[in-house]
Amino acid sequence: MSTHLGKRKRAVSQKKPARKPESEKSEAELPDAQEIFRRHFEAQFKPLPAVKKKIVVEPMVEDESEEDSDWYGISDVEQNGVQVIEHTDAESRMAAMSKEELKSFMSSKIPKNAPTVSVLRDSVGGKIDDEDASEAANLKKDLALQRLLSESHLLESSNNPTLNGNNRHKATDLRLQALGSKESILRQEKMPMSHRKGIISKASEKETKRRFDARENGIILEKAKMVKKDIAGKRDRGIGAPAVGRFNSGTLRLSKKDIYDIEGPKRTPSTRGRGGGRGGGRGKGKRG
Questions:
Q1: Is-contact 254 245, C-beta < 8 A?
Q2: For a designed S-S bond to 24, which of 20, 73, 123, 151 qualifies (C-beta 3.0 to 4.6 A apart)?
Q3: Model confidence over 220-277: pLDDT tens digits?
Q4: Measuring CA to CA, how many Å separate 155 from each of 103, 145, 152, 158, 200?
Q5: Domain map (residue ranges) of the chain
Q6: In degrees, to the nearest 5, what angle opens at C-alpha 46 toward C-alphas 43 and 48?
């Protein structure tokens, strides 16, 4: 026998289609069953209107890179949020008058032409000054300069630029007097009159010398205060004391002045009587 050698054919494996799940089969067979029942119903009755299937639109999923490339800025559409409304009026501020301004306005006197700083008050009650914050700083500097000028003579006796010891008490006394203190806190109530007069004269000499030197050197000092002398009034007498004279040791003593005030001026005797010389007088005629 002759043997023929040839190429062996390869067995081609036919791939079977994968089985669809039962859920997909039921969905595919469901329209066929409905179609059969529809045809059977139309054969017995009138045909039914055609049913339109709804088209389901799948949402498009965009990548983040595409969102960044297609960004055109902030949209004008506002997001839904809590809307807050404040009932405040920008023009609710009104000029408020201070007590001094109100008193001068209600008085009948002519107001002075001194400039006053107007203060604005809003509806809540807060003060709003027209002047800037620099005005407050300037006032503090002016006060410090006035204190330096009034207390500069205290720094002459010491090399230390700060006040200490006795000079600090003197500076405190000067500040209290500038605020309206009637008497000095360093004044001694009980001392001999000669010592007190000497202290007063020495202090006045120092003050005049200080002002003279400042005037010569072109230094501006504080305004000198005018001290009024105490006018001795009437002496207060106790209750039940005599209004005239002095009562001492159970005896009332009257001075010549008191007696003169009681008696008054003396009258000089007149040389001519009432009615004049002869024949004068009423009812003094000759008897008939």
A1: yes
A2: 20
A3: 888 887 777 666 556 666 677 777 888 888 888 888 888 888 888 877 776 665 555 5
A4: 43, 14, 5, 6, 21
A5: 120-187, 188-222
A6: 100
